[in-house]
Amino acid sequence: MNVVVVESPAKAKTINKYLGSGYKVLASFGHVRDLPAKDGSVLPDQDFEMLWEVDPASQKRMKDISDAVKGSDALFLATDPDREGEAISWHVLDLLRKKKVIGDKPVKRVVFNAITKKAVLDAMANPRDIDVPLVDAYLARRALDYLVGFNLSPVLWRKLPGARSAGRVQSVALRLVCDRESEIERFISEEYWNLSALLRTPRGDEFEARLMSADGKRLQGRSIKNGEDANRLKALLDGAAYVVDTVEAKPVKRNPGPPFTTSTLQQAASSNIGFNASRTMQVAQKLYEGVDIGGETVGLITYMRTDGVQMAPEAVDAARSAIVDQFGQRYLPEKPRFYSTKAKNAQEAHEAIRPTEFTRTPDQVRRYLDADQARLYELIWKRGIASQMASAEIERTTVEILADNKGEKAGLRAVGSVIRFDGFLGAYVDSREDAEKGEDDDEDGRLPEINAREKLDKNKVNASQHFTEPPPRYSEASLIKKMEELGIGRPSTYAATLKTLSDREYVTMDKRKLIPHSKGRLVTAFLESFFTKYVEYDFTADLEEKLDKISAGELDWKQVLREFWQDFFAQIEDTKELRVTNVLDALNETLAPLVFPKREDGSDPRICQVCGTGNLSLKLGKYGAFVGCSNYPDCNYTRQLSSEGGADAEANALSEPKALGADPHTGEELTLRSGRFGPYIQRGDGKEAKRSSLPKGWKPEDIDHEKALALINLPRDVGKHPESAKMISAGLGRYGPFLLHDGSYANLESIEDVFSIGLNRAVTVLAEKQSKVAAGGGRGRGTPAALKELGDHPDGGTITVRDGKYGPYVNWGKVNATLPKGLDPQSVTMEQAMAFIIEKGGKAPSAKAKPKKAAAKATTATKKAAPKAKTAAKAKAPAKKTAAAPKAKKTGT
Question: Where are the beta strands (DSSP E) in 272-383?
Fold first, then answer.
């Protein structure tokens, strides 16, 4: 019996069918061990020793693998054919050797680019050893990412409260998004005009020609700057006679693009079928691992993490054969096409992404796939087969026209094209009939019959005003493309990087565009000011190139780490003397358009409009940065940061209180305001004024007097309970809308229910809640058991992940921090947990935090010091309580 180890159970199931009864295929479920998410897992002072940890689930899987290997004849490591796959095999083998179950058994590494019977059997027949340089490259990348994350993130926590984390690739990708936003803010729009004439041939056919020259000068795209010039040229064209100068028709060939890489697949899936990067990779993974096709599990595509653009020779032959069968001999080029990538630092170690069998057309397999799988497979199949098809043949016609108005001359141009042979474009239409029709009916770019030297009639002259637009915000697809061009990240990291930016709330998505959140812009500005080198595009790309050289055996991985760590550690040490005022001054300057947006009245945006004398500046609070007045506490003016059009842009519009009318019961003024925690309603003035935050989903621009009055007067009396005769009230609290009766709470589904719920429905909701409590749910339960232990907080105490009434949360001592919606509790890392705890109100780790024993001593010392603190506090009490002082002093002694 031979044991085969793969990553996923789906892959194991497929391969087991191919290999038969002489093999036992087991899944590792991805990585079996990782660096613990706590400081000290990579030790630079011990030549970058890495301390690995096996989680409980992986321990069980490794036991199953270990037990199977004990009674086996040989071990085959068949994980994915990339750096991560090589690393998984290395980890599995290292653990098995430590368990001493390998002995003298042969151990072989097998790789296949597609999960088909032929590919798997060929790989099993041609095994190799573990690729040590590839593993070294993995170790170097893992150590670099760890060292950056666990040394740079604490700097952010101390100097920039509210920031969550920094990362080697993540921070550079975030800088791209923020830099684009800064470009948009600095952009100054310019006016320009376009002129065109609608002309008619002697045969009565109409077409449009664009003005290209006038006054003896060639006009560029934006040469006509104002309406005065445009009207002058329009008058020239209105009174002109038109004659065709030349007609030139040129054949043009359009060539197909290469098959998909990881990057181009993610871009195409985003543009064509609306998938984000993570969704694309999830669906592609299923297509790669295997789908049941008529009782047989088959891998439909090749490995989907690649930057290679070539297909294997046998795949090219299969594609050419399928082209003849599907489209005809005319669509087959004389020779196969070969491609080379233009991406910086591309390794091209694997094939491009292609169908495993070109004979499996999208129509044939659609009934075996779900909707997402079918759409992505069709995209891959069409791109793969089109890459080997003949060029499209297009005829492009250019007509030059002269306009003469009493000696004043101008030149116009009309351009049109006709597809004479669709070639590879035929792969992108649903039927041959559509393709044939397209060859002769290309209305959008077609010109009528036009002959040289013939006169034309003018129907109309159009002069249209335009304004230049700022560069567009990045979409996921365009950001991935830019990262690939710059050599930042690798195919396996794009989706994870984008997901991290979203999970950290550094960017938000609006109409498929990435908008940097104020948190993200603050982090980027901080890093650009104090860690410039480590967010530079060239530096990050050069580091990626070094990692590639390590995988090729050209560089020593630990030497690369030594060179990086020497400079990076020195930069970290320099920030210890950095004062918060230095940070704020730098951020105020770098983020001036965000922090101090221009005012409509032209007044100085840095002067407080409330008190008129204070200077506005960034302030740092427990929950992050906000803008405040230098005259605090005499002036309490604050407002949130916001990116134009971003998630908190609405709050930024409320820099001044908005009057909504008076409360008829108290006579006090109701105002809509913006504070550090968002927009809110306030009744009256002063510290005792009642306030109420806007419920989720309520927009400031929609708030009127009626809504404000209803909100500020919560809780609302619903009616007396028929059994207890006690009042039931409805209100809005920390955890959302609720009902309250006799000290017991019940949640309501929406804020609208608070204002509309009647007595009968309220009684029913309360009864349902009581039934749930009686059955063991709801309130009254003990502390939930830990789902996952993450390790010790640097200041002492264990950090755990638990599941509570309101969902999963992170716990440290008395601090409970709810996890963001959609975040898997089992995937939470120590780095994430620390950020959530700090944001919730737990303190950041002290700069001199020591290992567990030291932290324990510090805790003990704190307990011993507590009575002294108590004594000091009581010493300041009024004279009539002086009698308590001796007792406190005695306790302290």
Answer: 291-293, 296-298
How many residues belong to the chain? 893
- Does the predicted TM-score (pTM) go above 0.90? no
Marked catalytic residue, from 18, 303, 494, 506: 303
Report d(CA 698, CA 710) in Å as an integer: 13
pLDDT tens digits, one per residue of 740-787 = 988 888 888 888 888 889 898 899 888 888 877 766 554 444 456 677
Nearest Cα neighbor of 190 from 232, 231, 221, 233 is 221
CA distance 819 to 799: 13
- Residue 110 shares a structural domain with residue 169: no
CA distance 865 to 862: 5
Residue 846 lies in a domain: no
Q: Convert the pLDDT of each residue in 811-839 to its tens digit.
A: 888 888 888 877 778 788 888 888 888 87
CB 454 within 8 A of CB 402: no
Domain boundary residue among 584, 612, 638?
A: 638
CATH code for the domain in which residue 216 is found:
2.70.20.10
93 and 44 belong to one structural domain: yes
Q: Tell the burial category of 593 from Cβ atoms under 10 Å away from its Cβ (0-12, 13-18, 19+).
A: middle
Check whether residue 559 and residue 414 sit in a common domain: no
Contact criterion met (CB below 8 Å) for 413 and 212: yes
Catalytic: 23? no
**Domain span at residue 268?**
262-390
Residue 249: closest CA among 444, 402, 453, 394: 394
Tell me the C-alpha distance between 302 and 319, whole Å.
14
Give the three-class secondary structure for 168: coil
